[in-house]
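Q: I'm writing a short methods note and want an example of a predicted protein-small molecule complex. Could you take the sequence and the SMILES for zinc ion and return the bound structure as tokens? Please keep the output block clean; save any remarks for afterwards.
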Amino acid sequence: MIKAGKLRLLPTKEQELLFFSFCNISRFAYNESLSFKISMYNDGIFVGVQECIDHIKDLKYSEEYSWIKLAPEAVTKQAIRDMNRSFTLFFKRGNKGFPKYKKKSKTRPSFYQRTDRFYQIDENHVRITGIKQPVKCIKTQLPNKIVNTRVIYDGKYWFLTYSYYYEAEIVELTDEVLGVDLGVRNMATCSDGRIFKNINKEPRIIKLEKRKKLIQRKIARKYKCNSRKSNNIIKLENDLRTINRKIFNIRNNYLHCMTKELVRNKPKAIVIEDLSVCDMAKTKLLNRYIYDANFSRIRKYLEYKTNEYGIKLVIADRYYPSTKKCSCCGNIIEKMSLDNRIYECKKCGMTMDRDLNASINLKNYYC
Ligand SMILES: [Zn+2]
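A: Understood, no commentary inside the block.
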């Protein structure tokens, strides 16, 4: 099984500048090879990875682009491979969308680090290709065999991300099936009665969101009367990045804790709804995109956490009426309005919290 890990790096100011330039060169190689590929394609010529690598090499030895030499070759090569991969995905699956250029403002700075050239010097130092002095890191012992190493910047800190293989432990699963109803009022309601509240309604998130809006408004106003980037704008944009990072981390941590909690009792199966049809998807929310992102992340985390223990993750059929069905007698009511929080069955007289009823139905879906 493959797991992902990351290690916090503590580069010096000079090392950090080099890191940033490697990131920029990586982004340049990606964009340049993409536009090269497109222009050749328009002329009816299909170019592969090697041609793109040669193209960047040609540029590297021209005077104008000699700064490419600053970064290790593996950095540009991997950027080209990444570009090619997004191209292949587009042709294979179509739904991935045509490869886009990486905008500086929208791309997380990162660059590839050849795994075979990377090594840990001691507990507190690692060797990064292209950086003369060892780079300090937080005290750690990396797993034996790591692959796909990259250096990334999250807006505040530098990390080395990697994947590693590990032997999955064999765990004894219980006979339980857990139904999980995902929603907006509560993020998750489980058939065993556990409830995970909506992190987006927590005061600390609301407070941060408010501050974020305020800064965004300030920046917009400053741009209106200033055509160029003033120091003030740069400072505000830095604040905005810090807040975005904070919000992301709080949410992400919560989702990790929640999914971990869901698999903790080791049920033999977990049933969730098809996210495209759950209540949430029908709600008209101002911040819909946040929920969309959260839900796809919950599913992703659940996928690999259940996989780790050998728990079966079941996605209920999209036509399964989990909210409209009575979990007691199976009667289905025609309409269940979204603000109706209590499920009342006219046939058997059962009343229950709407989400709990749905989660029990999901549990029964697999049982
Ligand atoms: Zn009933």
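A: Remarks, as requested: The first helix runs from residue 13 to 42. The chain has two domains: 2-165, 172-199+256-367.
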